[in-house]
Amino acid sequence: MFRSIVAGTAVLLALSATRPTLSTPLAAISTRPVPLNPADPSQSRVGRLQYRGGIEIAAVVPSFGGLSDVRILDQGRQLVAVSDCGTAFVARLRYDASGTLVGADEGRIFPLLGPGGAALQDGEEDAESLALTPDQALVVGFEQRHRLWRYPPGRGPFGLPPDPLQAPPGTAALEPNQGFEATLALEDGRLVALSEAPTGRPRSAAGWIERGAVWEAFDLPLVYAEDVPQEPFRPTALALLPGGDVVVEERRYPPVAVRLRRIPRASLEAGRDLEGVELARFAPPMTVDNLEGLDIAPGPDGASRLYLLSDDNNCAKGGHRHGASSQRTLLLTFTLGD
């Protein structure tokens, strides 16, 4: 059984007077540790990654779930995520004495603001990606209505209304469910964005990188596995390694599997030779689900860690909840070997 780690009603984030509130506050979250491989609990490595613990997170309120991307702050202690249902989820992460991730508490959930502090309208809720800029602003990429909004720092995460950013050219032609699946801020503040959609070239997805005030397009080659040649791994998240290389999280469904691709920074800047190298691949019987979120950030010991977050596709949108989902909200963390 899940071990309850937040009792009673969680306090919502301090908000401005214009900010909308949820009709059902997040009352409690529960977590339980998960092994890297339930079929082999002794397994502690996958590819070039060393497992440093993982948890399954659950809550019984309709507003929880659908977490699409994540950023980890405060040396591994604060999780900030965005949801398909136009909300943000914030929690504190807990580690044991060895630095293994064992739980989360102090969960808070609240709606994302629109420009001017307005509530999001129907069709605006689908937040798919999250970038943290050098000045601590948060940039959210949406699909359905494809757009990028920059939330300035102050009043906690997402405490101030966003400023709309200029979207890359051609995004209006993307299908509604193929928008800004992944966004990343580079060290100099420039943004990188990826769609999971094919471009005009077969077997590739659309990507963009900022060059000053101009977006330049590039094609990310998709990877097809021999066991499922008809379904590629599609990009779902981006993160930055120390030194500047980029890691792309890529998901295949069906059947579910996830891979991590490391792309040299020089290749990204040139917009070519983006095949990169595979760091790890996750597939059953390993602990894997609809992994859509990724961050690389200092952990509690100061060393860089990879944090992977899954979307359970089970939050309420427009008063409707998809229904009971077999997917889970997982947070898995790893260190990268040589």
List its salient traits.
338 residues, single chain, five-stranded antiparallel β-sheet, disordered N terminus, mainly beta, seven-stranded antiparallel β-sheet, Tachylectin-2, Chain A
Which residue ranges are poorly predicted, with pLDDT under 50 across at least 5 consecutive positions? Answer: 1-25
- Listing every helix as H and every strand as E from the N terminus to the C terminus, the arrangement reads EEEEEEEEEEEEEEEEEEEEHEEEEEE
What is the CATH architecture descriptor? 5 Propeller
Classify the helix fraction into a percent range. under 10%
Q: Sheet bearing the most strands, described?
A: 7 strands, antiparallel
- Global morphology: globular
Helix segment count? 1
Arithmetic mean pLDDT: 89
Could you tell me how far the N terminus lies from the C terminus, measured between alpha carbons in angstroms? Answer: 37 Å
Report the radius of gyration as a whole number of Å.
Answer: 19 Å
| Count of extended strands | 26
CATH class descriptor: Mainly Beta
Topology-level CATH name? Tachylectin-2, Chain A
